[in-house]
Amino acid sequence: MYEYLTAIGQDSHRFEEASGSEEYSKPLVMGGIEIPDIEGFEANSDGDVVLHALTNAVSGITGINILGAVADDMCLAQSITDSREYLKCALDGLGDDRIVHVSFSVECKKPVLAPYIAEIKASVASLLGIRESSIGFTATSGEGLTDFGRGLGAQVLCSITVRRKSVDI
Predict the structure, then answer these.
(1) 0.90 exceeded by the pTM?
(2) What CATH number is associated with residue 84?
(3) Range of the structural domain that residue 35 is part of
(4) What are 66's strand-pairing partners?
(5) Domain count along the chain
(6) DSSP-derived secondary structure for 134-163
(7) Residue 28: alpha-carbon gap to chain centroid
(8) Which end of the chain offers a freer environment for a tag, N or C, measured as fewer CB atoms within 10 Å?
(9) Residue 166 pLDDT
């Protein structure tokens, strides 16, 4: 017998300020892939809002907060800025529990994500060891009602469904 748990994670970041040069100081990373020709996020890490929201959702299942003190130590003390590593740390806390479905909702004016959705889903599926068909991904500008929809950054909501073997009490 199995029981199913759900959790929600959220993250948002502002885009870096333009440095005045043609090149950006860091790439934009979403879902573990680099999106070209746009500034990256203001963050100590790569600022991957998709993986940060997923990491926070996993923390909602495990009760172990990774983004915060753990990620700060990894980033600032160990120079680990790749958000895939934070996610891996969160996934370690799942033990035998298994993520069976993930759904992302992204709000941003830029970049236009439609050309990258398949690649993002493939990246996340690979990180989680699940089928791409088990990942939902939607993006909206929110009609420009928030700073995200006006192009100042991006916000991601993520829900996960986790299967756990039932334990008799």
Answers:
(1) yes
(2) 3.30.1330.50
(3) 2-165
(4) none
(5) 1
(6) GEEEEEE-GGG-STTTTTSEEEEEEEEEEE
(7) 13
(8) C
(9) 86
